[in-house]
Amino acid sequence: MTIPGSGLTIADVRATSVTVPLQAPLRHSNGTHWGRFVRTIVEIETTDGLIGLGEMGGGGASAENAIIALKPYLVGHDPARTEALRFMLANPTASLYNNRTQLLAAVEFACLDILGQHAGLPVHALLGGAVREKVEFASYLFYRYPSADGSGEVRTHEQLAEHARALKAEHGFRVHKLKGGVFHPDYERESFRALAGELDGDRFRYDPNGVLSVEDAIRFANGVADLDNDYIEDPCYGLNGMRRVRENTRVPTATNTVVVNFEQLAANVLQPAVDVILLDTTFWGGIRPCVKAAGVCETFQLGVAVHSSGELGIQLATMLHLGAVVPNLSFAADAHYHHLRDDVIAGGKMPYDDGAIAVPDAPGLGVRLDREKVAEYAELYRELGPYPYDRDPGRPGWYPLLPNHDYADPAIGGRPAALETEPY
């Protein structure tokens, strides 16, 4: 049987890894972004010459080989048949071995980009139509090592508040998220309270990436419960641990780690542990699964926000199209985007306006590559190579246990020796 489709056929698949500098190295509970993001740009070309764009990360390493390995699956396929692609590339049982969900997402981005260009419509029009013209974002705040020029350190309560004030003045953020799990939770609770004290009238959220014990998570949440919190995100790891936190605090819980597929979403509906589901277009396998998950959340009155996994402009566009079509988007989205010094899309970085970014309205994803920038940052990746995202350059040999009890010392400042060869 011949299945009608778009009439388009995939002819080629290309992948290019790039390194784009950050303002300063970003510390997190498992390690550090070492002053730059490594992202793999995906291009899917049809026999008609349309080129769709995708993007994915890789924990500081290239994903080029994994993407190119999909070429035999994709060449000759109709890019409109994204549901068939889901089972071709990431069949649930096969994925126990090949772990292709994030690869599928990058392919889906590019296929939707192609379809939008072919139809002359933005991707949000293919997904049901926009209900908003812009998406609000939170000021994703990190503790940071100094950059190579000595600027940008965020370690003390005062440095954190100063950094947040500067971002608010520059971009207009009214919601502030602290990425924690770096220092002892008592220290980070003081930082969080100092932040809230400096930005009266704004809203706040805290995310230690699941490394706190359940008891420490409860203690932290209750210690900030009087503030204007959106939620506490992944304070500990696991649905049952999150359920215990939820039952012992009045601060809403959120996750992007333990509800990232439909089986976990169903488990959370049956036995609630998480109030707000953070939808990541990469982790869920594409924009379309996120839209479907948002529909489930709407049915069961769960909160929805858009999660960030370290995007350049292509993935940011997918986040904007998702945010545009989800009617129950009830929180500001996350983005690492303002930490970037540059981007690989034509026209440069998308601007914030009063804390929000406009949803692209050109056909497809609405972004195109700046080929000179791609070449520049591909060469930089070849020069610098990968870095270990899950290691802290200031703590050689360290890695966290779950729950963690071995935290960094906030009294130790400066730039680690392991970063001396890093240019950013």
Automatic annotation (TrEMBL):
Provide the catalytic activity annotation. D-glucarate = 5-dehydro-4-deoxy-D-glucarate + H2O
What metabolic or biological pathway is this protein involved in? Answer: Carbohydrate acid metabolism; D-glucarate degradation; 2,5-dioxopentanoate from D-glucarate: step 1/2
Q: Name one GO molecular function term.
A: glucarate dehydratase activity
Question: What is the superkingdom listed in this entry's lineage?
Answer: Bacteria
- Entry coiled-coil feature ranges: none
Gene3D superfamilies reported in the protein's UniProt record: Enolase-like C-terminal domain, Enolase-like, N-terminal domain
| UniProt-listed Enzyme Commission number(s) | 4.2.1.40
Return the InterPro entries for the record.
DgoD-like, Enolase-like_C_sf, Enolase-like_N, Enolase_C-like, Mandelate_racemase_C, Mandelate_racemase_N_dom
Question: Residue ranges of the Mandelate racemase/muconate lactonizing enzyme C-terminal domain?
Answer: 157-252
Its recorded name reads: glucarate dehydratase
* Organism encoding this protein: Phytoactinopolyspora halophila
